[in-house]
Amino acid sequence: MLSRIYFDHSATTPLDPRVLEAMLPYMSGSFGNPSSLHREGRAARNAVETARAQVAALIGAEPETIIFTASGTEADNLALIGTVHASGKPGHVVTSVIEHAAILETCRFLAGTGTKVTQLPANRDGLIGPDSLLRALQSNVTIVSIMAANNVVGTLQPIEELAQLTKLHGVLFHTDAVQAAGKTRLDVDRLQVDLLSVSAHKLHGPKGVGALYVRKGTALAPVIFGGGQERGLRSATENVAGIVGFGAAAAIARKELDAESRRLAELRDFILREVTRNLPQASLVGHPTQRLPGHLSLVFRGQERRVGKLLAALDAAGVAVSAGSACSAHHSGEPSSVVLSMGYDAERARGLIRVSLGRFSTRAEAERFLEILIRAVRSNENLIPGCDLSESRQIAEASIA
Ligand code: PLP
Fold it and tell me: What is the mean pLDDT of residues 141-157?
């Protein structure tokens, strides 16, 4: 029996077996609380501090600048709410229209408490222009937050340039690097960022653990209160096994980054070439070159309203890819707000298919994926319109049972 092809690594990645191995002792014998002073506690503390150094090294930071959190979402919340609260004023957050919900919903919350929020536009490639940032910086700004790589269309932002402009105005700069970390080289000093969010499960680490880089001297208030762990910025007993897994995943990603991102980019370009050669109705959404190495966002002209059926057919044939993240389990059938804000119409924005590769994706899988995709797109042409992911879920369940 052929195994399934998982091409949805922007949603989450499988745990690397080397990461699992590193975590296992901390899920059994090494169970200490890092705040305890006895031997068990000290062993846990050592493991957390080793992981802190490993995560720091992935982004060119010092270990003491890393705050472990329970997710990338929490790191984003801490970055924005923490800097606004520390400023002692309602403040002004400048962000973009294409950010992940972890940023946009945090901005919505802050706006409800009196914070001014400005959203910069994106162009058709998904890039945020420095001109709009410069205009926004003419008023009093607390923090600018622009993502390093977009989860829906894969576009990489010129973070160094945007952060430099922001610095010239003496304003804090945060980047959500949840999708970029482990796939592109990140160095907090070269990028000149003050805060940066990462998440373990996007780089073959465990779910439920993230981190926020906080440049020394940055005023940040906590959003979770309690025992004062993580320098008082994130109280709660540390998720030791998860943090150890994050550290191991970061160390592997750092070591293999150059070779792996080259390999993924080649595989991505091969898929794109073959898709466009065989399916003239296909086109790429997002920047053609400034994009994540393993990431493709495709629309199939004339099939936009049948994307649910296409996904269901792919799922039934053994392929896991996703719709642009708006057509997810929580927002079935809605056009992707990211793609809409890039200037596409609702039809296109509804029809996006996201293909995202990872460490264990192979050329043989890519070839089989192409066969299945080409067949599915061609036969889908005769189907009735409708973006219905409940059907996709039912088919997935039926094929497992
Ligand atoms: N930011 C971006 C760009 C993401 O893609 C995601 C997850 O999809 C997150 C933040 C949230 O990360 P987490 O799943 O760790 O909460």
Answer: 98
Predicted confidence (pLDDT) per residue in 203-252, tens digit:
999 999 999 999 999 999 999 999 999 999 999 999 999 999 999 999 99
> Going along 1-111, which residue ranges are E strands?
5-6, 66-69, 92-96
The alpha-helical segments, DSSP class H, found in 240-326 are 240-278, 307-316
Q: 127: which DSSP letter?
A: P
Cβ contacts of 392-400, under 8 Å, gap ≥ 24: 392/308, 392/311, 392/312, 392/315, 393/329, 395/312, 395/315, 395/316, 396/315, 396/316, 399/315, 399/316
d(CA 324, CA 389): 12
CB neighbour class for 164 (10 Å; exposed up to 12, middle 13-18, buried from 19): middle
- Stated length of the chain: 401
Q: From the candidates 252, 327, 342, 377, which is the catalytic residue?
A: 327
Of the options 3.90.550.10, 1.20.140.10, 3.90.1150.10, 3.40.50.40, the CATH number for the domain spanning 5-12+256-400: 3.90.1150.10
Question: CATH 3.40.640.10 spans which residues of the chain?
Answer: 17-253
Dig out the tokens for 99 from the structure: 């950010």
Which helix (DSSP H) or strand (DSSP E) does residue 368 occupy?
Answer: helix 363-380
Residue 391 has pLDDT above 70, yes or no: no
Q: Which two tokens stand for residue 81?
A: 């709410």
How many angstroms does the Cα of residue 65 sit away from the middle of ligand 1?
20
Report which of 173, 214, 186 is spatially closest to residue 78, judged by C-alpha positions.
214
* 27-31, 165-169, 388-392: least confident range: 388-392
CATH topology of domain 17-253: Aspartate Aminotransferase; domain 2 (3.40.640)
pLDDT at 398: 30
For residue 349, the model assigns a pLDDT of: 85
Annotation says 387 is catalytic: no
- Kindly state if the Cβ of 9 falls inside 6 Å of ligand 1: no
